[in-house]
Amino acid sequence: MLSTLCLVGLLVAPHRAPGHPHVFVDAGLTLIFDERGQLAALRVFWAYDAFYSLMMIEERGLDPDGDGTLTDAELDSIAGTDVDWEAGFPGDLHLSRDGDKVALSRPVRHGADYEPTSARIVTRHVRPLTNRIDPAKGAVAIRVYDPGYFVKYDVTLPVTVEGREDCRLTRRSANPDRAARILEREIAKLPADVMLENEYPEVGRHFADTLIVSCGATG
Question: Are 160 and 142 in contact (CB under 8 A)?
Fold first, then answer.
């Protein structure tokens, strides 16, 4: 969920029809293993859609000459702003094993780039695991989603592994029709006087693919 950038211009008038998502992001991941073969962290890449990228640039007064390029200093001013979450917010990267949540530390090692050909801003950060784990002792499930579905993530960028060569990644695709039915059902439960944009159901997980990481004997 984006917290520090102005989103007002993306909001639609309150109504009962589904109004999300408003921001579209292509996501990629690098799984980082330590010298003991334990999953230590994930490097996360988010490529924002061109419209939202333009909003980010205009709101911050970047690229004043309009030449379609951003300086290193301008990119540095963007890095980390999309993960400047309030304390306690878990973020949009979700890991679990055997149904139990795998805790992640707050984002570190921020960066940002700009793709002139697609007019998209691409940010990156690292999410260390609070306690490192070995996927050989049980597969790890990874999903990228905004619980409130304001942002729609699709893992279309590369998903790679660093530090281990015996891991396998498989994808369990979401069922968009089922997710849409769940969304409609949850919206129908809301009182008629509720402003949908303020009380949107937390259905993002139903629209998210699941990446299964297994290594060693489980691979």
Answer: no
Indicate the pairing of strand 108-115 with strand 210-215. Answer: unpaired
Single pTM value for the model: 0.87
Backbone angles phi, psi at 43, to 5 degrees: -90, 130
Backbone angles phi, psi at 196, to 5 degrees: -55, -40
The two three-digit tokens of residue 116, written as one number = 């002139």
Asked if 144 and 157 touch (Cβ cutoff 8 Å), the reply is: no
Buried b (16+ CB within 10 A) or exposed e, 52-61: bbebbbeeee
34-53 mean pLDDT: 97
User: Is pLDDT at 66 greater than 90 in this prediction?
Assistant: no
pLDDT, tens only, 110-155: 999 999 999 999 999 999 999 999 999 999 999 999 999 999 999 9
Asked if residues 157 and 28 have their Cβ atoms less than 8 Å apart, the reply is yes
| CB 132, CB 38: distance < 8 Å | yes
φ, ψ at 199 (rounded to 5°): -130, 40
Residue 57 · residue 141 · CB < 8 Å: no
Give just the sign of the alpha carbon dihedral 187, 4, 209, 131. negative
C-alpha–C-alpha distance, residues 86 and 1, integer Å: 10
- pLDDT over 60 (residue 80): yes
**What SS3 state is found at 74?**
helix
